[in-house]
Design goal:
Distance between the termini of chain B: 88 Å
Strand content of chain A: 15-25%
Strand content of chain B: 5-15%
Low-confidence stretches of chain A: 1-10, 256-271, 275-280
Mean pLDDT of chain B: 90
Mean pLDDT of chain A: 84
Largest interface: A-B, 36 and 36 residues
Strand order of the largest sheet of chain B: 1-2-3-4
Oligomer: heterodimer
Largest sheet of chain A: 6 strands, mixed
Shape of chain A: globular
Distance between the termini of chain A: 32 Å
Strand order of the largest sheet of chain A: 6-7-8-3-9-10
Number of helices of chain A: 10
Low-confidence stretches of chain B: 1-6
Order of helices and strands of chain A: EEEHEEHEHHHEHEHEEHHH
Order of helices and strands of chain B: EEHEHEHHHHHHHHHH
Number of strands of chain B: 4
Structural class of chain B: alpha/beta
Shape of chain B: elongated
Chain lengths: ~280, ~375
């Protein structure tokens, strides 16, 4: 099936337009509009249950939007099928929150699998390329191990290596730092920054870890469960220093805060959602 | 490195008099062009390994992770004979990325599957696994026995609601399939015996044969096999999933022994409902046999009298007792296999399979033992 191609927004590799998500007929997010520019690191942030992972799962085509559309390089992933969909899927890699490694395959086989399916490389080429992907995430020593033999942090890094197996233009990471020690988390952040700089890879990262956000993000989309939509879109520094929404301000200044009270107070002060569509 | 310029990769290989080699790369190096670069660079280098290899990447317009694989392989190839490789023409912004092709073990990359152990080793491992499994079975049997006695003396500590919930799933929900199979088995048994018995004019013996076979053996056995397929597997899957998700560990840290908390309700529920199910199986099999007898022209009163005259209360109670024992075996082995679940996505499936197989095998084994015991005590 072929589909009408939309012209990508200037510089945008992903366009989220009038997006509404619903589960069982109940709206969980609405009126979400933003673009992800080619080569940027965009973070989806917000409190627990605000819909960060929901947006991500719609962006990667696991769910159909209830309204609106999500374009990957100008193509609507939800409306695609067959070869079109396969072509869109090859443009991005995904590292899921729990790793989602295939447990009956070694780490190397996990990384090699997309190459086996989508390239004409020989086995020895794929092995060597997969090994260098594992080198990127400092896991070359664990190539022959099964996922069950790895720690949680190592599984996440292996999942990132698998997501980068085909050198995709976009990499989606769902809570990559969650559950990791600060050093491993910082190493992961450095890897994201390096790959973004060296390969011009676009990253969409779901996280609410402030140190990570400030290290990696060019811009941050802030979602709020109370108003079921996005309430901010800007660079992390601007969100921290000058955003008028008290909840957003508090969210980005919480490390400086000595008490949880401002957060609690701000929780009831959810401000108006972003209405300009977040175009830049 | 930019992504805009798309050009096929160009490779040049040259050697100097000292045996050193130089590979020049230009154009685009990605998964599409890697096979070409590999055949033009790696293959010639492997044929005549240099002491020193220099790879000039100044002409590369684009290089991604696939390119790193080429550099890693060239490094590995020359390292086989103790040689080394260096990259030249690297722009400063490329340096950190290209450094990623330097593997900690320069010889890594020829990944062979782990060697299979020899037959003697495999035999030893298998024997050890069987011994270990038997040890766990004995330990579990002991723990379960003690806990069941404890439950008998502390009935208020038994999780009655959970036991009844499981009894409903294992018993009431299984009634339909047990009845259907009982009806069909009775019908088939009567039908298959009708033809050979006709030759001897012995068709009136059909109710006796079906009634005795079903009451003493088949009803309990069929019910136990259904229990193993439905509930034994479910017990293994439920407890196995709890093992994988560390819920069993959480129970232990709360001071709740899994055998008391999870196994006892399941075993009690199975022991409660299986004898009842076997009675239903027996009754429906007699109905099935009657359908054949009616088709052969025998009356209902003849059939009922023949059945009542064929089986004694000992036959009936012996069958019910067997069902009781089979339920204990099937439920306990299902729970044990669940608790033995290892990690990994296939582990729960393995436990379920092992629960069903072991449940059926041990049930038939127990049936044989009980058959001999019943013979000697005159049942």
């Amino acid at each position: 099936m072929t589909q009408a191609k939309s012209q990508p927004h200037d510089g945008a590799i992903i366009q989220v337009e009038r997006f509404r998500a619903a589960y069982g007929g109940k709206t969980v997010l609405q009126d979400v509009n933003f673009d992800v520019n080619r080569g940027e690191v965009l973070v989806l942030a917000g409190g627990s249950g605000c819909g960060k992972s929901t947006v991500l799962k719609h962006m990667i085509g696991l769910y159909q939007p209830a309204d609106g559309r999500i374009l990957i390089d100008g193509e609507d992933i939800a409306a695609s099928s067959g070869a079109d969909r396969e072509r869109i899927l090859r443009k991005f890699g995904v590292a899921f929150q729990g790793g989602a490694l295939f447990g009956n395959m070694s780490v190397l086989e996990n990384v090699r699998l997309p190459m086996e399916e989508y390239t004409d490389l020989s086995r020895e080429m794929m092995d060597m390329v997969a090994l260098t992907k594992l080198r990127l995430v400092s896991l070359e020593h664990a190539a022959q191990k099964l996922p069950a033999e790895l720690s949680g942090g190592m599984q996440k890094r292996a999942a990132i290596a698998r997501a980068m197996s085909l050198d995709p233009a976009i990499v989606f990471l769902d809570e990559p730092s969650a559950g990791l020690d600060p050093i491993t988390s910082a190493d992961l952040d450095e890897l994201i920054v390096d790959l973004n700089a060296m390969l011009n890879m676009t990253f969409v990262v779901v996280t609410h870890e402030l140190p990570s956000i400030f290290r990696i993000a060019d811009r941050v989309v802030v979602l709020d469960a109370a108003v079921k939509t996005m309430v901010a879109l800007d660079s992390p520094d601007k969100l921290r220093d000058s955003h008028p929404n008290p909840w957003v301000h508090s969210f980005f200044n919480r490390e400086a805060s000595t008490s949880q009270e401002p957060l609690a107070a701000a929780a009831s002060a959810h401000a108006a959602p972003v209405k300009n569509g977040g175009r830049v | 490195m930019t992504t805009t310029e798309i050009a096929p990769v160009q490779v040049t290989v040259s050697r100097d008099a000292g045996g050193n080699a130089r590979v020049g790369l230009a154009g685009r190096l990605d998964a599409t062009t890697l096979p070409e670069a590999w055949s033009q660079a790696v293959i010639p280098i492997r044929k005549n390994l240099p002491a020193q290899l220099t790879v000039d990447v100044a002409g590369l317009s684009y290089c991604d992770g696939a390119g790193l694989g080429l550099f890693a392989e060239l490094r590995r190839s020359v390292a086989v004979k103790g040689g080394s490789m260096q990259l030249t023409g690297v722009r400063p912004e490329q340096q950190r990325f290209l450094d990623m092709s330097v593997l900690k073990d320069p010889l890594a990359g020829q990944l062979q599957p782990a060697p299979q152990p020899g037959s003697i080793t495999q035999l030893g491992k298998s024997t050890w696994l069987i011994i270990e499994d038997l040890r766990q079975l004995v330990a579990f049997t002991g723990e379960l026995t003690v806990t069941l006695f404890w439950a008998a003396t502390h009935p208020h500590k038994v999780r009655v609601r959970e036991t009844l919930r499981i009894a409903q799933k294992a018993g009431a929900d299984a009634l339909g399939v047990v009845n259907l199979l009982g009806l069909l088995i009775g019908l088939i048994l009567a039908f298959q015996t009708a033809a050979p018995l006709e030759r001897f004019g012995a068709q009136p013996m059909i109710p006796t044969i079906v009634a005795i076979a079903m009451a003493r053996e088949m009803a309990a056995l069929i019910t136990a096999i259904i229990l193993a397929g439905r509930s034994g597997s479910a017990f293994a899957a439920e407890i196995g999933t709890m093992q994988v998700t560390e819920e069993l560990a959480a129970l232990k840290t709360l001071g709740l022994e899994p055998v008391r908390f999870l196994v006892v309700p399941r075993v009690l529920a199975a022991m409660l409902v299986t004898p009842l199910l076997s009675v239903f199986c027996l009754l429906l099999s007699l109905v099935g046999a009657y359908i054949v007898m009616a088709a052969l022209g025998y009356s209902l009163s003849f059939y009922v009298n023949a059945v009542i005259g064929a089986i004694t209360y000992r036959d009936f109670l012996g069958g019910v007792f067997k069902a009781f024992v089979f339920a204990l075996i099937v439920a306990a082995i299902g729970c044990l296999r669940g608790m033995q679940t290892k990690s990994g996505p296939g582990a729960v499936g393995d436990s379920t399979t092992r629960a069903v197989v072991a449940g059926i095998v041990l049930t038939i084994l127990a049936d044989a033992v009980l058959g001999v015991v019943f013979y000697y005590i005159g049942i």
